[in-house]
Amino acid sequence: MTPETRNIIKFILKFISHKGSFFFWFFIRFISALFPIFSIYLFSQIIALVENKSNFSTVLYLVALIFIIYLLENFTRLLSINKLEYLISGIQFEVHNFLIPDLELKNKSARFEAIQAIRNFSEAVRLTLELIRQPGVDSVVSLIATPLILFFLDFKIFIFEIVYIVVYFFVDVYTTQRYIYLKNLQNAKVEAYYARLQGTNDIDLEEKQYNRVHQKICSWNFIEWFTLQNISICFYSAALLYLIFEVNQGTKNISGLILIIGYLGSTQIFLNSLSLLKDKLADTRVALYRLGKSETVTNIDLDDLIR
Predict the structure, then answer these.
(1) Is pLDDT above 90 for 72?
(2) d(Cα 297, Cα 100) in Å, to the nearest integer?
(3) At residue 102, what are phi and psi to the nearest 5 degrees?
């Protein structure tokens, strides 16, 4: 995490009025994210028992344990998600209350443009926090737990996993930089569109400019996600071939293959989630950048956050 990203997150946390409740429910959400990881392990143990024709009562015990774990996971996940949704919705109003009262405005059009910039920022904050809530928490837990588990299961797969994550990360960093540039252009067009809309219906030029930039973002999103998903497919397929070879050689059983593939399959999911979260943090960064460059916001030195 870059210093700039940490500063933005700290800035967002300033708007949370009920920090105790907020962090408590995020902790519960973190606990709920651990249950699926344990369930994958139990499922592989059931496959191993069935392979070895073990006592049915032992298999039934593990099935019942998985059932209880899923019940706990559903309860803690859904409860914490809904509690956090309520808390996050209030943060938007906190942003408005903090930034809007001290606007220095030269004319009505400038006010509309400044308010739209604040709305862009508050919306980006809301979407970022909602993504952290789900699936961001699950992704962070998996990012920490999955490589650690693979280290003990199969060291070669562990090295494979680390290389996969590193390659995915650097490609994602590159594609996000281009996305930030385009998103800044889009926010500028949105602000100009709504500022002009308040005074006239002649907005054809602003609409065309916005649509042109939005089309570029959509095209870049396709290139970005197509590249990232193909990276995942290549690494996943190579790992699967290696594990099948190990099973054919008799050095690994079917249950071991299912266990490792289960954790590898979750890698693509949590990397995609983290990439999406990174894009939303980029949206927040761009919106904050535009606020920092605005001469109408005077109640905070935003330049300290966007350098």
Answers:
(1) yes
(2) 8
(3) -100, 25
pLDDT of 165 above 90? yes
Task: For 23-56, write each residue's pLDDT tens digit.
Answer: 999 999 999 999 988 888 888 888 888 878 888 8
In this prediction the pTM is 0.78
216-245 pLDDT, tens digit each: 999 999 999 999 999 999 999 999 999 999
Does residue 135 have a cis bond before it (omega within 30 degrees)? yes
What are the backbone dihedrals phi and psi of residue 100, each rounded to the nearest 5 degrees, phi first? -75, -45
Nearest CA among 76, 89, 78 for reference residue 16: 89
Between CA 236 and CA 161 the distance in angstroms is 9
Helix axis angle, 19-51 to 56-99, nearest 10°:
160
Look-up of token digits 């996971």: 73
**pLDDT above 80 (res 71):** yes
User: Distance between CA atoms of 182 and 222, rounded to whole angstroms?
Assistant: 14
Q: Is the pLDDT of residue 271 over 80?
A: yes
**Per-residue model confidence (pLDDT) at position 105:** 58
Q: Which domains does the chain have, with CATH numbers?
A: 3-306 (1.20.1560.10)
**CA-to-CA distance for 247 and 155, rounded, in angstroms?**
16
Three-class SS of residue 201?
coil
How many residues are given for the chain? Answer: 307
Alpha helices in the chain (DSSP H): 3-13, 19-51, 56-99, 108-131, 137-153, 155-197, 204-248, 254-293, 303-306
Could you give the 3-state DSSP secondary structure of residue 103? strand
